[in-house]
Specification:
39% of the residues lie in helices and 17% in strands. The chain is an alpha/beta fold and 152 residues long. The chain has a single domain, classed as Dehydroquinase, class II (Rossmann fold, 3-Layer(aba) Sandwich), CATH 3.40.50. The radius of gyration is 14 Å and the shape is globular. The two termini are 18 Å apart. Bound molecules: ligand CA2.
């Protein structure tokens, strides 16, 4: 079974605690639950993690190169700042789907640029927690395409 790393960056552990108007009411634990259910239906295995530390995120992306078939990444604020995350993603050479809960293009200008997008097969933003489930569907199709299976 294919393994997908779902990696979450800084402050996403605060979801559900503050700013529900921007990020919704789901906690990160709720989002993990939704992903586990969706992944089971898609016959994918997931490894769902969160860190507040840039170096940890880089280490996990490097680990994914060895241990995962795809990465779903909400890099939080590192999206807009981190060349180190971009370099790690480029080196990982895996399908990457970038996810954001909020629509970063309706927010401050400094959120409009994403380093992560340069290494991403696709970007989902503005759909809240559902974006993670859609990212899993996208990964399932990308991986099926790779092995020559038909996607639905
Ligand atoms: O919309 C997203 O998913 C973001 O990646 C979230 C990041 C933000 O820096 C990006 O521009 C867009 C911030 C996550 C912080 O989450 C909080 C949740 C509750 C309370 C405070 C912060």
């Amino acid at each position: 079974m294919a393994t997908v790393f779902i990696l979450n960056g800084p402050n996403l552990n605060l979801l559900g605690v503050r700013d529900p108007a921007v990020y919704g009411r789901d906690t990160l634990g709720d989002i993990e639950e939704r992903c586990l259910r969706r992944a089971a239906a898609l016959k994918l295995e997931i490894d769902f993690r969160q860190t507040n530390h840039e170096g940890q995120l880089v280490d996990w992306i490097q680990e994914a190169r060895e241990s995962a078939d795809a990465i779903i990444l909400n890099a939080g604020a590192f999206t807009h700042t981190s060349l180190a995350v971009l370099d790690a993603l480029s080196a990982a050479d895996l399908p990457v789907i970038e996810v954001h809960l909020s629509n970063i293009f309706r927010r401050e200008r400094f959120r409009h640029h994403s380093y992560v997008s340069l290494a991403a097969a696709g970007v989902i933003c503005g759909l809240g927690a559902q974006g993670y489930e859609l990212a899993l569907e996208a990964v399932a199709r990308l991986l099926a395409g790779r092995t020559g299976e038909t996607s639905q």
